[in-house]
Amino acid sequence: MTYVVQAVWTARDGEENAVADIIRIITPLSRQEPGNLGYQAHVSTDDPRRFMIYEQYVDAAAFEAHRASAHFQKYVVGDCLARLASREVVTYEPLDP
User: What is the bridge-based pairing of β-strands 36-43 and 50-57?
Assistant: First the structure.
């Protein structure tokens, strides 16, 4: 079973470069996590402040481990969240297991 996460972040005005830099830092670190199957960040073609991160994990526990990781806590919780105007995280499980 693959546990999928779609995170959509919108940076505050003027913070888009800092948010992009943080995403560039956490992407390779997240890909190295034991339960991570895929981690790909995108920026909107219509709005450079809007980012979408598509993540795949072996299960929900692996996603929770990601959120508890030192790099997530340092870069996302400790820095990035204050730079965001909005943040939406939606999780998905397979329709047919």
Answer: antiparallel
Q: What are phi and psi of 20, to 5 degrees?
A: -60, -40
* Cα–Cα dist 48/17, whole Å: 9
pLDDT in tens, the chain (97 residues): 799 999 999 999 999 999 999 999 999 999 999 999 999 999 999 999 999 999 999 999 999 999 999 999 999 999 999 999 999 999 999 888 6
Tell whether the torsion through CA atoms of 79, 85, 62 and 42 is positive or negative: negative
Q: Is the pTM of this model over 0.70?
A: yes
Nearest CA among 54, 58, 22 for reference residue 41:
54
CA distances from 4 to 1, 14, 32, 82 (A): 10, 30, 17, 25
Sign, Cα dihedral of 1, 80, 51, 30: negative
